[in-house]
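Because discrete structure vocabularies remain unfamiliar, we first show an illustrative case, written as a sequence plus integers encoding its fold.
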Amino acid sequence: MAEFNPSTELSVVVPVKNEAGNILPLISEIDKALSDQITYEIIIVDDGSNDETGFEVDGLCADQAHVRLLTHERCCGQSQATITGGIAASGEWIVTLDGDGQNVPADILKLLSARSHLGNDAACSLFIGNRSLRQDNFIRRIVSRIANRVRGFVLGDCTPDSGCGLKLLRRELFLGLPRFDALHRFMPALVIRSGGRVLSVPVSHRPRSRGVSKYGIWKRLALGLLDMLGVAWLQIRYTKPLKRSD
């Protein structure tokens, strides 16, 4: 586990699989958005790619010390890749975004702005993007909308877009969440379970310009229902202790 580095305010964690051609432009956009705004590092977690993704990032790391590459020998899934990046992060805060280029790196500044307006409550809060104009096909948008509504009804997370890859929270809060293969989709409910708050921030969304999606819609929906029941069980079986003030 990486040690906290006070000189690094933000760790940008990007899980990727087979995103050759996408990842270097994305890193460049992150640099453009954050340079001169905040001290940061970029952690790319290559989740078992079998294309040139790792080679592209590795070549960049030699020239740019703030970019780090972590590699899974086999595909473990987006949540585990995010967990790997979070454990390795040295910043006090973590921001995650998808490696396919559909999240807009400049929107990280919107999450940081929301954090600054929340004051002391920001430390126990999750700031998550809300893709109001999603650039996905019709079926994917409908399935996602249904999943969000069902998830909100069952788990009470009141989050319109809990599947958005753009998320900001303290590293300590992130590492305290239960770890499982669908963690990245249920972070709002789990943060609320821990006693924190969730704030949705309107963000942009772009169509994928290269490569193909790694997710099958119907398989993900079926697994999502099982995962949702598991998270509901965690909510029921947790009693948050009340601390007595002296």
